[in-house]
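[agent] plan:
  1. take the single chain provided in the ticket
  2. run structure prediction with default settings
  3. attach structure tokens to the ticket
  4. add a short note for the reviewer (M.T.)
[agent] executing step 1
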Amino acid sequence: MSLALLHLDSSILGDHSVSRQVSAAIVARLTAADPSLAVLYRDLAADPLPHATPASMPADHPLSGGKGDGASQQALDDFRAADIVVIGAPMYNFSIPTQLRAWIDRILVPGKTFAYGDGGKVTGLAAGKRVIVALARGGFYADPAFAVAAEHAETYLRWVFGFIGITPEFIIADGIAAGQREAALESAMKSAGELKAA
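[agent] step 2 finished; step 3 output follows
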């Protein structure tokens, strides 16, 4: 049985996007290593989910009252069915795009991707999935003090996927808006080409 790969992009920049180029290179690397991978692609910028409301949540979410939105339920089902998830994630204004955040709101569902236990202990129910993030940032975040104050993309994604039991992998292109676009893209594409197979 072939593995399922879910490929998501969230950049609003189209062909100019670094994260889109790198996420595509990651998928190309993985599918070259395993041509049997079943790839499902979703462009969250071109086909965005709405901001979260009780009515727009998946039917599986307690807030929906068992009704929910079909597209939101599909987003959750696609994530749960995937063995590998590749995400193109630019950092906008020190965080992730709202389109990606809306998707994350659909996959964090109690009883489906996480559960609360005794004393509030959280169990991630999505363990075993491989999540690879192509992260593009305009500046540089090597200074730990600056990163703690200003970096809310990688840190958020590490935390939110960790919450549901996944340790994500990152390929990062830094300095996109600081005169290092080509060097950052070249380095990230090299890392994508060296990624271990599925």
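[agent] step 4 note for reviewer: The domain at 4-193 is CATH 3.40.50.360 (Rossmann fold).
[agent] ticket updated
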